Amino acid sequence: MGKQAVITVRQLVKKFGAFTANDHLSFDVYEGEIFGFLGANGAGKTTAIRILSGLSQPTSGSVRVAGFDAAREPEKIKKNIGYMCQKFSLYEDLTVRENIMLYGGIYGMPKKVIRERCGELLDRLQFSAYGDRLIAGLPLGFRQKLAFSVAVLHQPRIVFLDEPTGGVDPVARRQFWELIYETAAAGITVFVTTHYMDEAEYCDRISIMSEGKIVAIGTPEELKSTWQAASVEEVFVKIARPQHVTI
Amino acid sequence: MRTIFYLIRKEFLQIFRDKFIGKAIFAIPIVQMLILVPAVTFEIRNVKMCVIDRDRSVESRALISQLEGSSFFRVTHTTLSGKEAFDLMHRDQCDLLLEIPAGFGKNMGNGVPSRLMVPVNAINATHAQLTWGYVSGVIRDYNLNLAASKTGDIGLSAVPKMDITHRYWYNEMLNYKYYMLPGVLGILVLAIAFVLAGLNLVKEKESGTIEQINVTPVRKYQFIAAKMVPFLVIGLIDLALGIAVGMAVFQMPFEGHALLLFLSSFIFMIAALGVALFVSTFTHTQQQFMFAGFFFMIIFMLMSGIFTPLESMPEWARTINLFNPVAYIMRINRMVMLKGSVFGDIKGDICALTAIALVSTLFAIWKYRKSA
After folding, report:
1. B82 and B186, same structural domain?
2. Which neighbouring-strand residues pair with A159?
3. pTM for the predicted model, two decimal places
4. Tally of domains in chain B
5. How do residues B140-190 score in pLDDT, each as one tens digit?
6. ipTM of this model?
7. B216 in reach of chain A (CB within 8 A)
8. How far is B17 from chain A (nearest CA, A)?
9. Are the Cβ atoms of A57 and B371 closer than 8 angstroms?
């Protein structure tokens, strides 16, 4: 790609007691790309994404995100990123618009700008009729698109998505990925974890984690040719299964 | 700074969007005042008395009617059998026995000292002591009257005696409502801080919404401040409501300055909110918070001196009370409302409260982690 790295991870280790969740991870993510972070459940994806977004401290290693050190300057990282948790976490007892105003305000956006973007966002999602509805009454697909839009409201340099499409139907997933493409096209780097392998095919580059280690990294094509597989799913099945587990 | 306003707005929206809490927040203090103030009283009225009058003389009847006339006592039983009387006491039919021995009137007439027997039910020690206090007061009066009339009979000039005039300052009628009310006001404000604010933060942990906040550049002090301000406002409004109810319904006197009372309560609330939020930073579920929070609340409340005078607590308890914000507000409320104390009189208490408020708030901010 030849682009500039916005995330640089070197020898990242995260331990919880005796358990090593992230075992010497090293990778780069380049500006404007969609980076897929794959791995089986419990492979250590969420742990890594939490460190990258300043929610958790690395045990050792160097992590730089948007030019800041994750161990020493997590709050500066937070200014430059957007984040969408695995669990839906907008306020259900607030309306769509109130949630947008709140997060716009927290990121220090001027009121006028928040209003404008709120209008744009609702139009783009064809949500205008729901602006004053409480989140609690909205279907999951809507909520997730909204959560994503709120995560990029302040136009961060990078947005982290932790299994953003868990539990939604194929149509809503498709629409969600269209949003991701639009966002990446606008220059925001997208860092997404998933275990839907069809989604992995949409990424510019992917990494596959297994038992806390990155076992493969590259474009979907590179991985498929290296592992002589027809799809990313096949690659994943070949390498991501823990060796000692026999089913 | 602007960030705080957005966060505070969000808290208010959430509080009033909750149909129950939005209303209860103003109804509960009123109901609390109406129920607690008149209910929690140490006043003794209508003590059930069983009289064993073995004398049936003019003198004995005079003594009984003097006791009855005081409104503290009500003769519910009369008997001549000591056994029956003790039985009544045992079955909780009466709380006080008055045994007047035969010959009481005659002895009185002859100037021979008489012995009265007055057993009191002391299951509730406080109650028993008060009852006994009232009984002995009435009997002393009876004695004095008797002495006065006797000296007249013998034609002596009045025996010189000390005449004690006592007055209950700041609460002349010893109205327990006046004593309880300022205390209940403190408890009211404490409950708002503890239950609402503390639970609010833990609820965000449980529902996961706090994670989305933690990943923003919001400052820790901003988040904690936004959790405090709405409850401070609500607490002070509730305090005003409580005082209004107290004055309208219980004719509560308010001798001091309202501003001083509100300033003190403002500081007290910050202290209580600080402790509550501190507790919520190390608990993860609402259940955990309630358990830990209840512990603090009960200790704060029962040790605060709302029921029992601080001065009669043991030394170690008084030491603990140095860190108990409720103990300070209890004293401040009573002094300002009943005595009309001014800032100079309570500045020590206000300073201590301020210190507790500062320390607990700083602890809450320090302990709040933007990583979990």
Report:
1. no
2. A82, A190
3. 0.82
4. 2
5. 888 877 777 766 555 555 556 666 677 777 776 667 788 888 888 999 889
6. 0.89
7. yes
8. 7
9. yes
